[in-house]
Amino acid sequence: QAQRDGGNTLRFFESEMDARASRRMDVLSRLRGAIGRGELFLHYQPKVCTADGQVIGVEALVRWHNGDIGMIPPSDFIPLAEESGLIDEIGEWVLRRACEQGMRWQAEGLSELSIAVNLSTRQFRQERLLALVRSALEDSGLPPQRLELEITEGMLMQDPEKAAVVLRRLHELGVRISIDDFGTGYSSLSYLQRFPVHTLKVDQSFVREISNSPGAAAIVTAVISLAHSLDLCVVAEGVETEAQRRFLGDLACDYCQGYYFSRPVAAGEISALNGAEPATLPRA
Ligand code: C2E
Ligand code: MG
Ligand code: MG
Ligand code: MG
């Protein structure tokens, strides 16, 4: 009896696995043609000054809508793209489109806006990253100081020596480097003074718990103070409430990003900010 149940459980487990694997294959094969079919697009989430709510930059976030399966969140397809190598093509597409959009906003008068682009692990490791960034800047005309590349702690720690070289070259190009999801990775803090990093982005898991967890509040406080004593900028991610904004304002956190100010939106909604008061930001 026990053995038969065990067998059934195993068969059930295997069919679950099959279902999941075939769903992945299905998503992956659709993803292969997604760029060609024009299914990818970018949304942009404003990054605002904590003190006055002024929009100083945006983060480009890739979106994928497939006619058959609908919207697929990046948390579902970026890992697949990364494993399959498709991220090379997607990452290049994102970088080029974001730089071009930055120039379009410049033409509309939003000439100070910084444009942040997320890099994946695989992109960061590639030899051609530098050439790609240089080419995206040259082809679009975007001033390098307006491009910000977001990387995670894990990317730096895999091969710190090599990462240092890559970061130095990017820095020489004039682009800025942000550490995304800061506080969630396993990393040594010593790299912060060795690498040309410009900004720390406090991970949203800590920001979310600011009012409920003294531990999370302590971590946010410590990261802001660490950033400032190293002369780095600091951005709080995932700010959703007035209480969080006030806490961050009291700590003089430079910038905030989150649904409290705006969800990621289409490029046109960012254009509409031109000349607008901070208060007219589209709220979540
Ligand atoms: P991330 O770079 O840390 O981006 C922030 C994520 O938090 C975004 O999710 C954003 O929509 C979400 N978010 C912003 N404010 C709030 C808030 O107040 N509350 C909550 N609950 N969430 C908020 P999204 O767009 O789903 O992206 C998820 C992750 O996928 C990104 O995390 C990034 O790691 C990756 N990703 C997105 N676009 C790209 C891309 O173009 N290239 C690469 N390599 N990765 C990307
Ligand atoms: Mg990011
Ligand atoms: Mg993040
Ligand atoms: Mg992330």
TrEMBL record:
Where in this chain does the record put each EAL domain?
24-278
Task: Write out the annotated subcellular location.
Answer: Cell membrane
From which domain of life does this come?
Bacteria
> In its UniProt entry, what is this protein called?
PAS domain S-box-containing protein/diguanylate cyclase (GGDEF) domain-containing protein
